[in-house]
Amino acid sequence: MKSYHANSGAGIAGLVVRQHHEPKPGPREVLVRVRANSLNFRELMVLRGNYPLPVKPDVVMGADGAGEIVAVGPGVSRVKVGDRVAAAMFPDGSTAQSTGNPRHNWVVRLTACFPSTWC
After folding, report:
1. Residue spans of beta strands (DSSP E) within 39-80
2. Which terminus of the chain has fewer CB atoms gathered within 10 Å of its CB, N or C?
3. Which domains does the chain have, with CATH numbers?
4. At residue 99, does pLDDT exceed 60?
């Protein structure tokens, strides 16, 4: 799997792709094979160096996306393997929260899940 990393102020050219092992979902987590994702406005601000809050070095980019669930951890009951879902970054954290790095496969702790049939 891949993840896209950058440092504050690095610009689009500063995005770096890294390879990782596929994670296993833990309790109340799902693994999502991401089919589409994007850089949101917050991430563009980080890349431009004008995000007002502190940014970790080598931060992972691409927090918004859509895909399908490929594995579920213990305690997951609202979704199943094969469900299509979307995750988006909102300031209040009201949607899916990444417990690892947003990447081509995500491990997500579900606080809200939006099946693609709702769109």
Report:
1. 59-61, 64-72
2. C
3. 2-118 (3.90.180.10)
4. no
